[in-house]
Each structure stands twice: as structure tokens, then as C-alpha cells.
Amino acid sequence: MVTANRNDSSVQVLSRKDFVSDQEVRWCPGCGDYSILAQTQKVMPDLGIPRENIVFISGIGCSSRLPYYMNTYGFHSIHGRAPTIATGLKASRPELSVWVVTGDGDALSIGGNHILHVLRRNVDLQIVLHNNEIYGLTKGQYSPTSELGKRTKSSPYGTIDAPLHPLSVAIGAEATFVARAIDTDAHHLATMLERTAQHRGTSFLEVYQNCNIFNDGAFAGFAAKEVRADRTITLEHGKPMIFGKERDKGLRLNGLHLEVVQVGVDGVPEGDLLVHDETLEDPSIAFLLSRLAYPDYPVPIGVFRAVQRPTYDTMMTEQIEQAIAAEGPGDLREIFHEGDTWTVE
Amino acid sequence: MVTANRNDSSVQVLSRKDFVSDQEVRWCPGCGDYSILAQTQKVMPDLGIPRENIVFISGIGCSSRLPYYMNTYGFHSIHGRAPTIATGLKASRPELSVWVVTGDGDALSIGGNHILHVLRRNVDLQIVLHNNEIYGLTKGQYSPTSELGKRTKSSPYGTIDAPLHPLSVAIGAEATFVARAIDTDAHHLATMLERTAQHRGTSFLEVYQNCNIFNDGAFAGFAAKEVRADRTITLEHGKPMIFGKERDKGLRLNGLHLEVVQVGVDGVPEGDLLVHDETLEDPSIAFLLSRLAYPDYPVPIGVFRAVQRPTYDTMMTEQIEQAIAAEGPGDLREIFHEGDTWTVE
Amino acid sequence: MTTLIKESEQPDHPELLELDRVTIRFAGDSGDGMQLAGTQFTKTSAVAGNDISTFPDIPAEIRAPQGSLPGVSGFQVSFSSQEIYTPGDAPDVLVAMNPAALKTNIGDLPRGGILVVNQDEFNDTNLRKAAYATNPLEDGSLSAYRLFKVPISTLNARALKDSGLTAVQIDRCKNMFALGIMFWLYSRSLDTTLRWIDEKFGKNPGVAEANKTSVKSGYYFGETTEMFATHYHVPKAKQQPGLYRNITGNEATALGFLTASKLAGLQLFYGSYPITPASDVLHELSRFKRFGVKTFQAEDEIAAVGSAIGAAFGGSMGLTGTSGPGLALKSEAIGLAVMVELPLVIMNVQRGGPSTGLPTKTEQADLLQAMFGRNGESPVPIVAPATASDCFNMAIEAWRIAIKYRTPVIFLSDGYLGMGSEPWLIPDVGSLPKIEANFAHDPATFQPYARDPQTLARPWAVPGTPDLEHRIGGLEKADITGNVNYEPVNHNKMVHLRAAKIAGIVQDVPDIEVTGEASGGLLVLGWGSTYGVITTAVQRARAEGKKVSGAHIRHLNPLPANLGDVLKRYDTVLMPEMNLGQMRLLLRGRYLVDIIGLNKVSGRPFTIAEVEDKIAELTG
Amino acid sequence: MTTLIKESEQPDHPELLELDRVTIRFAGDSGDGMQLAGTQFTKTSAVAGNDISTFPDIPAEIRAPQGSLPGVSGFQVSFSSQEIYTPGDAPDVLVAMNPAALKTNIGDLPRGGILVVNQDEFNDTNLRKAAYATNPLEDGSLSAYRLFKVPISTLNARALKDSGLTAVQIDRCKNMFALGIMFWLYSRSLDTTLRWIDEKFGKNPGVAEANKTSVKSGYYFGETTEMFATHYHVPKAKQQPGLYRNITGNEATALGFLTASKLAGLQLFYGSYPITPASDVLHELSRFKRFGVKTFQAEDEIAAVGSAIGAAFGGSMGLTGTSGPGLALKSEAIGLAVMVELPLVIMNVQRGGPSTGLPTKTEQADLLQAMFGRNGESPVPIVAPATASDCFNMAIEAWRIAIKYRTPVIFLSDGYLGMGSEPWLIPDVGSLPKIEANFAHDPATFQPYARDPQTLARPWAVPGTPDLEHRIGGLEKADITGNVNYEPVNHNKMVHLRAAKIAGIVQDVPDIEVTGEASGGLLVLGWGSTYGVITTAVQRARAEGKKVSGAHIRHLNPLPANLGDVLKRYDTVLMPEMNLGQMRLLLRGRYLVDIIGLNKVSGRPFTIAEVEDKIAELTG
Ligand SMILES: Cc1ncc(C[n+]2csc(CCOP(=O)(O)OP(=O)(O)O)c2C)c(N)n1
Ligand SMILES: Cc1ncc(C[n+]2csc(CCOP(=O)(O)OP(=O)(O)O)c2C)c(N)n1
Ligand code: SF4
Ligand code: SF4
Ligand SMILES: [Mg+2]
Ligand SMILES: [Mg+2]
């Protein structure tokens, strides 16, 4: 097995540029993928991981071209299958930092089953889903996250498929880390990428990404700079759920139902608001938050859920260590001679 | 297109026997599948659907052999793909009653992606999942619902995969009808099969099914006759959540957390208990209920969620009717002549 | 040949030359609207009565950076007074809207060819993006061509300065200006395009006007400037009389499937997952709601074929379509369709492989996958269209076979056919024979796996039919009853029955026809999209007096009954394929004839010259 | 031949005959423990020094209803004093534990064969379940056989009446009683079985005692009753000296993969999804934690192969395994592995097809799927073991090729090999040559798609290696650099390079060896599990003085360099295959030799007689 360590000194000196590959970036001018790429390259040096121990694996789609632009190991695989390749790599090489870059079609249409299973297994991967609510690379068909009734090349009369909520799917599949960010909110996006990297287990980060060619402005309604403060809410662990330019609105729990309330002087006291706890074992509140949508509610961004559970890759290694500890290292001769043997002179 | 109607008289006279095919049943003696088959055959006549309009479609697995034993149209397809075949059939023939019979491996391992999508599309199908928490047909490997640490042929050192909760997955995938039953609780199972049939949209029914050969007693801990009343809770719409042989225990909501409480004289008043409402638009409570597990909680059986949403098949038909209404019926000549044409003499 | 029509008295008055055939390639940045310019020129030439053939060359990237080499988009149109079968090997004229377009296309322009460039775009930035050290317009590197430097952007902007449009909008019109120049150069009428502009931008008069102004300005520019000493005229071609339209293979395929459903009187259900270059068929069919066509964009290719099988079980025409990687995913389910013996059509528009390969390029390398890409002995009929318009015929043929024989059928097209276009003689629907579904109805005689003695087809008994309730599936079936059966004798019998059924389709397969000698000499044999190139190459070789014949296979499985005898009648058989010899292997194995291969797997169709050279080598 | 060893003085004392070879089939209800009885008899005979070969016949249903026809489970063991290659065509002895077992197996018993039945089970219910109108034990329908009616259940129950076990537990021991009878009939020692019982039921002394009592009682029953006039002895076989064990093909395959990982010093990663008849390899490998073997039960076959590719990218030995339908699902991903050129082994244990087909039966019909079941030109080497123990060698061979040439390799076994067993001469691990991984390390010279001139293999540069960071994927690669590249010339070059690399493996493929004539006469050519039958049939034909030779292909792609010449040296070439002639098609297409086929697709292996008859027909 290859040794994956380098003297720390070399790790220190890494900068953003060290993660920029020599490949010309080939996205449409104005594509939200640029921002995700930039932030990804920016946070890499802070992770303190030797570059050669980082691997980006993607499926197929515009978003899935990202690995080409990262000066790390990379694998631009086939449509929807990145999680399977990442699982095999991480399970066999737990010391590597393995990232999965995917799109709404790649992850939730053809790749849906692998997402379910990688999440429940809690393989220690970082999954970054570029959700542009459209099939970009194939030039504009609707995706599993496109809104009902959307007219596209393949739905000239409007879609009749109710969309999936990526975070609800993830939480329903036993995810231990679930978060959301917006391409144009660079600073918050960077923080989320860092959190994603820090979590031990499968981290699932949905990034709202604008496809300015085939689905321009899909998120503008709540994500545009001017309105963002009033139409999104940033989840912060241990903090009450306040939002609004004036920080004057909040979310209060009423039975099992969340309501938007005015906070402060002529509103309810902060104390009445729901306090965000990303560490709850029970995923039900995270699920409830994953249902909130504009215009009825502010769209939550940030970490919805972050709980600890042994990771698949470590458990696999431990089983081997325990087996060796208990039965001694394997000996071919012994296995060959299993069962009845006989000698022919 | 084939006409699918028969004079009602013939429909009336159908009895259980009319739904028993001439094929010899080939499950292990004692298998829970027998009970599910019996109840399915029993409820059929009550549905008032001409037998020739009923279709059972399955994948591969012991459970998936059920269609052979139903004297209706049937399709024993390939592993995990029954929902796709059922979708095509129902979308093209909305007047048919289409059932999907599947297993925990068939539906949630290889077939997971199709389950996600059939549910979000809300195709009007009845999905009955025989969950025996094992791969029966292939002689005893663990399944995606097998408990963590389970030792099987393929996991001699115990599994390291956290199981999926079928109902959580379904709810996370926008399911409009979600229910659970137990093979040995024949009467309740029959009721659930009826509810499943009545719902317009995709109905998802999980049945705990004992595989007495490879996973015997998997559910005995809470499903066995002696303990069932105390370790399961039957969800009934509009009723408070009470359970126990003595009907003296209940579930109360505390913040977003459910707690088991003593009801009655020396306990809390019934009024404090959570009242079950299967019709809530917000799936969060149904999700919360899908997390309850023995021994911490009684295992809920019954209908978790039943909400109305236009079905995929009807919307597809409506789009066609609307297009014809708006643009008139299609004319090949007109389409042929689209765009610029020119005549060569 | 070239004839001088009119000697111009004044030197400043351009002369008009008549030509047989001209091939123009429009090349520019993806954003420059070259596809549009090309299509417009095509329509106009078609309407003018030329025979035409086109091929777009679209970049794999959605939008590579502006001005970059991978961002170049091209459209080639060939128009002629003779019958033509291909968009031509090399262009006579190259229109290059920027340095990158010049860099990537100049290689194909023969010396002496006409080169029109948009001079304005040859600035330092663009030159750098195209990796030009020096400006080719200045450094004399283009001396071999008839170079015309036109400041298209500037001229166009000037023409539209009063249009009230934004600078960006104005710049978008420059493709129309370039188109105008070509219209003048080949003395074409502007009518078709002007009409089209009105239709397209009707809602937006400002933009409509601007586009019209641009195309006219380009035309007048050609007329008034002294730049072009000559302009040209390509007379009408002699074509089969009738009403024509221009059509791409994918459009023709969609129309063929639609027509088949009308001929059968059955609902068409298309289950598909988008993939280049097959997606257009999904886009087309999803427009046909008025015809009762149901389209289902599935979550993946497996769901797509599954849904089509479900629809087939229900008595509809279950159709699924994809390209190579998707066909691989459908393998298992196609095997199920073989076992349950239901009508099903699988369209595969081949692209460059293996794996994701070259999504926007063409290839014929999925043939053996189509033949054998399933577990067990699972024979499937395969048909392959020869031209864009033949896609219409073979799409119907696929359905005739599928329904008559109750079998999945693979329709094997490719990116070249699918994206390329040619004139289509619009057929008279009434003249097309009906397709009989013959559903089972009679409980007295019904047996799920009883077979029609003539076709060996089993009954199609659909849900909703009283008293025909039965169960099918992927496990081996007992002969006649269709019950699950594992007995050795039965399995062996069923394997042979399934094989015999498909082989028996030969009774409906027309004998293969040879153009040229009945025997002796060289036979050039093709299948699929190589038809155009091979036909032209063979014609030219024969014109040179070579003893060369041509034949084309459109039914790939089963093969025409007479094929074996035909092959044995020639001294040499040459098979050009855009793969490493897949059909050749099948024919050699079956007929033990030592067929020679001409194989190119470059993502591009053969050029006529490549086939001609090989013919020369074998006959010379 | 049969020799009378000892003339018995008293008529009541059975005589002992010596035989060359005996084939016994144990048949009963799935619940009757026939597999167990069979395995025990096998071990005992092996230990006694016979050459042996076995084949289990397991019902497709998990547990069909007790006593039903589909519920019958059988196990055939052949033991001999000569070298044998197959479990024998027909049994000499049939042990039938109930009417259903009799019904389904009697057809295979030759007239005069020994038939031992458990009389107790022939009651009305069971007779009805087996669809017997009258009791065959009474109606004389079995007069052609040497019938022995033994009330096995009763005798066994009597023997265990004081065992303290429940009636059910007692009845479960009756297979041991039957086994005991056979041990006596073939004068075998009980030691092996008695020892095994102690190991197996050690924790449960009561049960252990009971089983031992049953087997002994069966033995004494044979000895003391006057039922059997004779009993038999099969002497030791002359075998290559050494230490032996009995092994199934699937066990040997698992051990081969494990050994390969030790020879390469790399971690073995097995990603698989359970499927009959391949699951046993997953079960075996998951036991090898102590060897650092990692097994991953994936959610489906696509995830399984994907995980193996991921492991391969990481520098481990990525392995995946399945059967036909699963191979179909892996098609697309195998194409990816072809494009990224990483070492990968795909095991396919073939079963009856198409579709779900006959899961527990054997077949060779996945060959063409293995060769061509991918989009585009995607060549993959294929190796096929010839016998159960050869699975060990070919599993290692698959890895040698995969690692040396950086390519996916398909290991093509089948249900007959996988489930069948034979003695295995335990190899000396030390004697096996190492496998060199040769990871890339040097940034100075590293180019992702630079190739070794000798093997055309690209470097294996794994994550964790400083300064070799690079990106791979399924889009076409530029030669040397491995960057995405859509250029025609490059694509054409890469397609040919990939083909040349696989073709070049021939340098490591041993020439094919012929047993028999160097030329002339009939050559019987086989591949895979037909080895045993063909070898035996050829031997017998030669013994009859026929001019017949035999050869067997173990490397299916690329084929041995000399194969073409060899084929051309014989007057006739016969190729028996358990398919409709898949390898025959490839060989005819490649070498233009008119190979004759013997094809049977019944889910059952050929019988020696079937091949002999065909040989006779062609030589007679
Ligand atoms: C097996 C297979 N099916 C289909 C395709 C075509 N395809 C490529 S990307 C894509 C979907 C892209 O959408 P998404 O995943 O949202 O990525 P985006 O381009 O929007 O970033 C499709 C359908 C393919 N490459 N492979
Ligand atoms: C493509 C494919 N992969 C694998 C199999 C083998 N297989 C058949 S059923 C099954 C799982 C059965 O488990 P489940 O769905 O829970 O059904 P059960 O037998 O438990 O009722 C598997 C792995 C198959 N038939 N096809
Ligand atoms: S098509 Fe959309 S998603 Fe793709 S690169 Fe362009 S803008 Fe980005
Ligand atoms: S194996 Fe289990 S699930 Fe399958 S039939 Fe037997 S008892 Fe039922
Ligand atoms: Mg997208
Ligand atoms: Mg199960």
C-alpha cells in the first residue's frame, strides 16, 4: 500500500493556487459552478490535508466536470455512480479525503439509489450536490428537483412530476450530516464546505446553483442579494431561529408546526423561538426544517443535522483488526487445508 | 385499446376462490408470505374491480412469487424493477388496478431508486413490501433492513451497515400514503390492504413478514401475539395514541419529542395524548412516527399518512385531453408539413 | 463542371458562374449562431430546388469559454444540381467568425478554397485564446486560400445603429450579416429567411427588423463591394417530384414512430432518459400530445425500458430510446422482454465510445452490443436506417416486426444520421400499409405461450381482457402454457424456439439488392449511415470504369436470405464500418467469406475520398 | 471391469465384488439432508483414495412444499479407481427418500441399476404429491431395477428410540441411516463421517450421538440383513501424489483470488451483490477478514462494480462477481474500466438464461455478452476455468493479466463448475510466482496515459502518491497526457491502442495443446466446464481406435497464438458448447474454419454419451 504522508512543512505551504489544475475551465460564463469551484479551491489549504490525499469523484453533468479543475486526484466517472466508486475507494483507503461532486440529476435521478445507501452506511465522504433544478449538460430537460409544471425541452406542456426535496431524501436515508448553501453567498458557502469536510461520516451538502443558460434565476426569488436576508434563514447551532434584514422575524414551534413570527418590541420575545440544535439524534426536526420553502417560509441554509455515528470505513477496518487480534493473521496454508484432507502416496 | 369493463353482475359474484390461481404455492412451510397472500386474495372481491382489470407486478425474491398465485394478470419481472413496469402500465392504462409486490431487498436495495421516483410521482399504484429483513430467495444474506451487527452468510462477523427505515424513506420521497402491518395480525393486515387499494396515488404498505428459515422471529419481540398489544400501537385517524393490553399507555408530544406515558386514573388524562391525523399535509409527524422502534417505543402499525395529490397517470391523461381540446386532435399531414416545404415538379 | 454564364463588361461588375455543387461551412463561437445561419442557408437552397445534405459539428461542452477552441461550433451544408448523399468531404467555402473557428476548420479547406473571415474578431485576446502567435490574416499563412477579410461586426453594427437595440443584441445579428453575404455569393433569394425571421421574432418586431436588416445588409454588401470578383449559381437538381421538407434523422425517427402508432391504431408510449444524441427524439415526441402520444422522462435508462415493457404488457406500443451507455444499462431488461416475448422497440442513436466516450460524435460500434449485450441466448432483431429520411421508414419497419413477432427490436441509428439533415419527400400516409395488433380475445383457445405456426409469435393478451388472466415473467417458461419450468428438455426447446422465431423473420426481410455488377469484381458492402459515402464512392469508381458494385444492409438481424450467396459471387468484398469490423465479424462467421474491412473510429463519418482510395487500392 | 474377490461359503453371507467406478445419486426432499449425505460419502471415498467427482442438483425454490416434485434435492457422486473428469452420466445406484425423488430421478437410472427407497414415505399423501396414481413399489413398474425397499424412517426411529430426542429430531437423522447403508454397500469406513459429526454437533452431544447411531445402524443393517446379496469395493485410484482435499469451483475461485492478493501483496476488495450461483464466493471471501480481505455487499450490481473500480483506483485489487443478469447490469461500468485502464477482475458464474432464466442451472451462454456487452469498442480479456480445481489457477491468471496490463478481465465460470466438486491437489504457495504491481512514483516521468512499450499498459498512479495528482474519466482521453480529447485522429488512435493492448496479451497466453493426433482426423475443441466430458469422450473414442483429438481453450480473449493453425490442421473440428455456438461463431469469423457445433442448452452439462455419439457420427 502506498504511504500517504508527507512532512508537515510541505502541507503548511499549500495555498489556493496549489489546488488549481492546468485544465481550462469549461462552464458557461456566469454559471454558478464557478463560485462553487472557487470556494472549494479556497478552503482546501485550510483542511491541512496533503494534496495527494485528496480525491474528487464525480458522475456526469456540468457540475461533474469540477474534478478536472482541482489539482488533486480526480475521477470523472459515469452518470450517477460516483458514490459507488467513492465508497470503494474510501473503504479500501480510509486515510484519503474523498469528495463526491454531483448534480441534481446525477445524484437524485439516475444516482438516487446509491445516495440512499452511501448515506445509511455513513461512509466518510463529502458529497456536494450542485442543485440547479435542471439537466444542464444535456441542454435543458427537467430534473427531479424541477418545480411542478416547469416547461422544458422534454416537457413542452409542463412537468407532472412532483419534485424531490434533496435534504428530505437525505434525512429519510439516515444521513448524519445535512447542510445547504447558495452559490452566490460565497462566504457562507465556504463555511459549509469546511463543515462538510470536518464531519466524520457522509456529509451531504446541497448548493443552490444557478444555471444561467437553461434555468436562469431559479433561486433568485429568495437567494438574490437584495431579498436574501428576508427570505432565507441561516441555521446556527444553539441560536434561536431569527432572520430578516432587521433580524426581526423568527420561527416558533406551535405543536408540530412551525410559524413565522415577529420578534422583539411589538412581537414575541426571542425566548419563544425555536433554538436550533443540529446534534439531535432524532432527525424529525431536521426533517421538518427540510420542508420549509419560500414563499410560505424563509428557506433555511446552514447545517440542518450533524450527528456522530461510526463510519462504514472505520468499522470495516476494525472488523479486520479484531479478526486478526482474535484469530491471528491469515495463513494461506491453513485455509488451503480446511476440512478433510488426504494424502496420496 | 382493449375495453376493460364487464357487466357488474359478474363483478358481484367474485369470491376469494376466484383469485386463487392454479399454480402450486412454493414457499417454505410456515413462511409469513402465506398470510399476506391469503389476505390479499380475501380482500380482492370487496374491491369491486373486475378481475381482468387487476394486475400484480413483482420483482425477484420469495415475496415476488406472489403474482403466480393470484388468478389475475401478473408479471414476475426482474429484480428491483417492478415499479418501473407498473409505472409504464398504469400510465398507459389508468383504468387498471396495478399492484406491486416486493421485498426489502427488491424494493430498497436494488430497487431503491425506482421506489423514490414512483412515490414522488404519485403514480396510482399499490406497493406491498414484504419486509423480512433478509434475502430469502438467495438463502440468507443480510438486507438493507437487517439490524446492525447481524450475522448472516455474507456477514459472518456481523453487518456494519445501518439499516434503512422503509417508511422514513417513503416519507422522505414525498409519499402520499404510508402504512404498516404485520403478517400474523391477519385482520389488521386485511384492513390495511383495503386502505392501500382505496388510496388514489402511490400507496406504500410495509408488512413485517417472518422468514422462518433465514430470519425466524425477527419481529417476535413486539409482534408475537402475547406481547403485541403492549409493544405495538395501532394508529387510528382522529383517535388519541393509546396502546397496551389494558389500553393504559399512550404517546404524548413533548416539544418535538414523543414520550410514552401512563394514561387514566394514576396517569395523564387522554386529552394530553397526541391525536393521530393521517391527513396532515406536512409529513413531519408521520416521519416522527416512522422513527419509533421497540423497545424504546411501541411499534406503530396502521396508516401513518394518507393525503391527496393529483396522480401521475391522471395528469398525463389530462395533458393529452387539454392539448386536444386546445389544438384539436393530431393530424399526421400537418406534422409532416411542419416548417418550410417546397415542391419539385 | 463550371460554365461562364455572363462575361462582365465592366470589370467592377462581378461575373456569375454556374456550378454543380457547393459545400459551405459556417464556423464560429457557440454563441455566434452558426447552426442557425447554416439551417437557413439549407432551407433556402432546398426551396431553390437543389439537392442538399448537411451536418452540424457541435461542441461537446455546453458553452466552452467564448472564443476558445473547444467552443467552436460548425455547420456544413452541401447543395447541388445532382443527387447527393453526403454533406461533402471538404468545404469549398469556409466562413470563420473568429480565430478559434479558423484554427479548428482551416485544415479541412482545400487550397484555393474561399475563406471569409470576420476581421473584427481577430484581436489579441481572441488570437491568444486560439493559440495564434501571430495574426494569420497578416502573416501570410493563409496565402493558399482566396481570403476575404470582412469587418462583419462593424458593418453589421453600422447597419443597425438606428435599430434601437442594445450593443449585445446588435452583435447577435452578425450571423445574419454573414448569411446575407453567402446568399449573395450563391445568388439565393432572401425570402425564405425573411419569412422565417418574421415567424420566429414576430412577438418582438424590433429584433425581427434588425435581423432582416442584417441579412439584407450582408447581401447588399456582397453585391455592392468589389470584393468578390465572381458569384455563383447552382441550378435545380433533378429530383423525384413531390412535396419536400428538410428533416434530421432524429425528427424522421420520431415521425416514423408516431406514424407507426397511427398505422397500428395503438397508443405510443415513449419511456426515455435524456442522453446525447438521442434526446431530440424525446423532445419531438413530447410535442405530440395531440396524437395521444405519452412520453415519460424516467429516472434512468432502466426505468425507461421498464416502463416501456409495462406499457407493452398493457397493449400499447412501448418504446424506449437512448445512446450507447444507456443501451448498456437496458441490457438486463431487454433480456426480460426477450423472455416474455412482448413487442418493444429500443432506439439506439450511437455515439463515440467506449464509456462516456465522445457524446456528440458519431460511431457504429454498438452493433455487437445490440446483438449480444444480454445474458443467455437472447436474440433480438435489429434494423438500421441508411439515411436521415430512411429513419422514418425503418422506424415503422421496427414496429412492424416487433408487433407481428411479439419481440423487442433494436433500431440502430447514429449521431451522424440523427443530427444530419436532408430533403425528405413527404410520404402519403394513406399509402402506408396498416399494422395489425391482433390481440388475443378467446378464452377457449388461449394459451400464453402457444405459437402462431407462421411467425412462432405468442398471443398478445392484455390486461382488461376477460378470462385471459395469466402470469408472465423472466424465469424459463414451459412451452404452450407459459408456466415456470426448469426441465432440461423444455429449456432446450424454448431456447431453440426463441432463436427460430427471430431467424424466421427473414421471411419478411427483402433480399439485398446490388447496384452494379451481378457478380465478379469488388462489392462494397455497408450498413447504417455509411450509405451516402459508399454510394457516392461506388458511383465515382464506376464512372471511372472500375468493376465495383455496392450493396447496403438495413436489416442487420436477421440478415437478408440471399446475402450469403451474393457475397460469394464477388472476387472481393469490402466493408467500410465506423468500428473495428463488427458486422464484418458476423458475416465472416456466418458465411465464411473473407471480407476485407475499411475501419475508421474517429467520431467522424468516412469521407468519400477515403472510400474511393480503398476501392482504388483494391481494384487498381 | 468387475472381479469376484471372495466366493461366499454360506449363501447367507454376502459376496464382495470389486468395481472400477461407481456413481451414486442421493435424492430426497430438500429437508431430507441429501446434500449432506452426498458430501459425506464424497469425503469418505476421497480419503479412501478414489478419484471423485460430484454434482449437486438443488431445487430453484427455497423450500418447495414438502414431498413435492419441485422440492426434490439431489446429490450425485462418482468415485473410481481410475482418473475421472465428470460425476458420471447416469447413476449406478439411486437412493430415493420419497416418491417425488423417485419420480424425478428414476428416468436417469439405467435398467438393472440398484434402487434403494425409503419405503415408509410411500404413503398416499406423498404418492399424490408426486402424482403417482398407484404405488410404484407395488405396481411392478420398477421391475427393471434391482429394487431394495427399506423402511428407513422406521428402522432409524427404532435405533434412536432411547436417544431422548424429539420425533422430529430423530427423523432428521434418517439421511445418516441411508448413508450408513451406502457405506456398507461400498465397504467404506465410517471414521471420516463419525469424526465430522463430532466436530459439527460437538456442542450438542445428544444430537451427535444420535447421528452416529443412525449411520452405524444403517451400516449394520446392510451387513446383517440378507437384503443385499453382494457388496462392493472400489480400490484406490492412481493419482498424482500429494495432499488432497475436496473442493467446489466456487471455493477454489475464492481461494485463487485470495492467493493472488498475497502474491501481489495488495489488499483484495470484493464488491458484490448476492446472486445464485455466485453468492458462495461472497460468503467465502467474507470469512477471510484475517487476510485483510474487504468484502462489500453492495446495494446492486452497479454499485458492486463501481466500488471495485474505486478500490482499483486506490491501488487495491478491485474484484466484483455475479452471474449473467448481474453482468448485464455491470456493462456500462466495465466500459468505464476499459476507458480508465485500471486493473479489475469481474467474475461471472454463468447460469441458465436469458433473463432470470434458470438460476440454479448451468450454461455457457454469457460468452458473447462478456466479449461485446458494452457500448463502443471496448475489448476485455476473458479467461475460463476448465474444472472445479482449475478455478484456482485461472482466478490467479485473471489477476496476473489485469495487473500487468491495467485492464478489466472477465473470469468466466459456470454453475456446474461453481457448485460441482472434485479433489484438489493442495498447491505449495511458495512455488507460485509473485505478481508485480509496479505503482508509479516518479513525478519527473509520469504521464497518466504514457504506455509501457512492452505491454502498452499505462501507469498505475494511486492517490496518496505525492505529485502524481491527475484526473481520469470516461470521456475519450488524449494519448500520453490523458486529458479529455475529442479530436478524430486521437480517438481513432486510442481505439486502436486499446485494441492492440488486449490483443498483445497473447504474448502471455500459452499455445493451445492438443491431446491425440498432431493433425488429421477429428479435433474436439472445448472451453470452460465441458472439459471433463470432452476429455472422457475423446479418451473413449481413441480407446476404440478412432482418429480423434482433443483441445481446450482457457484463454478466450485473446486466443492462443497457434489456435488458427491448429484448427486448420484437422479434417473436422467439433465444438460442443452449452449455448447455440457462441465461441464457434468467434472462431469461424476469425479463422474462417468451418467448425461444427454440438449445442445443448438444457441447463444441464453434456453427458459423455452425447459427445461420444456425436464423435461416432462424425468419424463413423
Ligand atoms: C447512462 C447515461 N445516461 C444519460 C446520460 C446523459 N446525461 C449526462 S449528464 C445528465 C444529467 C445532467 O444533469 P445534472 O446531473 O443535474 O447535472 P448538471 O449538468 O445540471 O450540472 C444526463 C441525462 C449519460 N451521460 N449517461
Ligand atoms: C439482477 C439480479 N441481481 C441479483 C439477483 C439475486 N436475487 C434474487 S432475489 C434477491 C433478494 C431477495 O431478497 P428480498 O427482496 O428481500 O426478497 P425475499 O426473498 O426476502 O422475499 C437477490 C439478491 C437477481 N435475481 N437479479
Ligand atoms: S449549462 Fe448551465 S449548468 Fe451547465 S455550464 Fe452552462 S450554465 Fe452552468
Ligand atoms: S426462505 Fe424465508 S421468505 Fe423465502 S419462502 Fe422460505 S420462509 Fe419464506
Ligand atoms: Mg442539474
Ligand atoms: Mg426479504
Structure report:
The complex is a heterotetramer, with two copies of chain A (345 residues) and two copies of chain C (620 residues). The model of chain A is unreliable at 1-11 (pLDDT under 50). The longest helix of chain A is centred in the C-terminal third of the chain and has 16 residues, at 312-327. In chain A, the strands form two sheets. Chain A has an eight-stranded mixed beta sheet, sandwiched between helices. Chain A has helices spanning 8-12, 33-43, 66-69, 82-92, 104-108, 112-121, 166-172, 186-198, 220-223, 225-231, 284-290, 312-327, 332-336; strands at 54-58, 73-76, 97-103, 125-131, 177-182, 203-208, 232-235, 242-243, 249-254, 257-262, 299-306, 341-344. Chain A is of the alpha/beta class and 345 residues long. Helix content of chain C is 36%, strand content 20%. Chain C has a seven-stranded mixed beta sheet, with helices on both faces. Chain C has a six-stranded mixed beta sheet with strand order 4-5-3-6-7-8, sandwiched between helices. A five-stranded mixed beta sheet of chain C has the order 19-21-20-23-24, sandwiched between helices. In chain C, helix 4 crosses helix 8, helix 6 (174-185) packs across helix 8 and helix 7 packs antiparallel against helix 8 (205-224). Chain C is globular, with a radius of gyration of 27 Å. Classes of the chains: A alpha/beta (345), C alpha/beta (620). Chains in contact: A-B, A-C, A-D, B-C, B-D, C-D. The interface between A and D is large, with 66 and 73 residues. Strand 12 (341-344) of chain B pairs antiparallel with strand 10 of chain C, so a sheet runs across the interface. The structure holds thiamine diphosphate (2 copies), iron/sulfur cluster (2 copies) and magnesium ion (MG) (2 copies).
